[in-house]
Specification:
By secondary structure, this protein is mostly helical. The chain has a single domain, classed as Up-down Bundle (Four Helix Bundle (Hemerythrin (Met), subunit A)). Helices cover 55% and strands 0% of the residues. Helix 1 runs parallel beside helix 6, helix 3 runs parallel beside helix 5 and helix 3 runs antiparallel to helix 6. It is globular, with a radius of gyration of 16 Å. The two termini are 19 Å apart. Pfam families: MST.
């Protein structure tokens, strides 16, 4: 497995869409750096009382990518491994099942989900486009909101990943 280069810093004065896409790609890349080169045991290591693991975080964010871009924006069904999971019976399956996965599998799953999300986004011209899936309550989100939410989701979990990775081998920074 080859190592990812240091993520490119987002532009200093971007247009709106450019900035949103660049910040999301930045956090995607930082997450991958946090897990690359680690063993399965390392990806399953926990810090303190938290059940979070690096493997669980990357698998969860792979699901989040597909859920927002495929399920919500396009109103299509999730693919495997997500489609056959009974989420009501096991709402944390993405976090917990990562313990059974290899580092290579988790990185491929994440890369596939991110590539798919980028492809879907490339086909959308207007950030005000509403997601196709209608929520059971409330209004539909627009694509802008989804991008902002994805940045927030990644930023939060990259912070968790920072702490976990530092506890494994002292690695810090992006």
């Amino acid at each position: 497995m080859t190592s990812s280069p240091r993520p490119a810093d987002p532009a200093e004065a971007p247009r709106e869409r450019q900035g949103l896409e660049e910040f999301l790609d930045y956090y995607r890349a930082v997450l991958r750096i946090k897990v690359e080169g680690l063993s399965s045991a390392d990806l399953n290591r926990r810090v303190g009382a938290s059940p979070l693991t690096l493997g669980g975080i990357i698998k969860h964010l792979s699901l989040v990518e597909e859920s927002w871009f495929v399920e919500d924006i396009l109103d299509q069904e999730l693919s495997e491994p997500w489609a056959s999971i009974d989420w009501k019976a096991d709402p944390d399956w993405d976090f917990e099942s990562a313990a059974e996965d290899t580092p290579d599998y988790l990185l491929r799953l994440h890369a596939k989900a991110c590539d798919q999300s980028r492809e879907i986004l490339a086909g959308i011209d207007d950030l005000d486009t509403l997601m196709a899936r209608k929520p059971s309550a409330g209004e539909r989100f627009n694509v802008r909101w989804v991008l902002i939410h994805m940045i927030e989701e990644y930023a939060r979990h990259v912070g968790h990943a920072d702490l976990i990775r530092e506890s494994i081998d002292g690695a810090t920074g992006d």
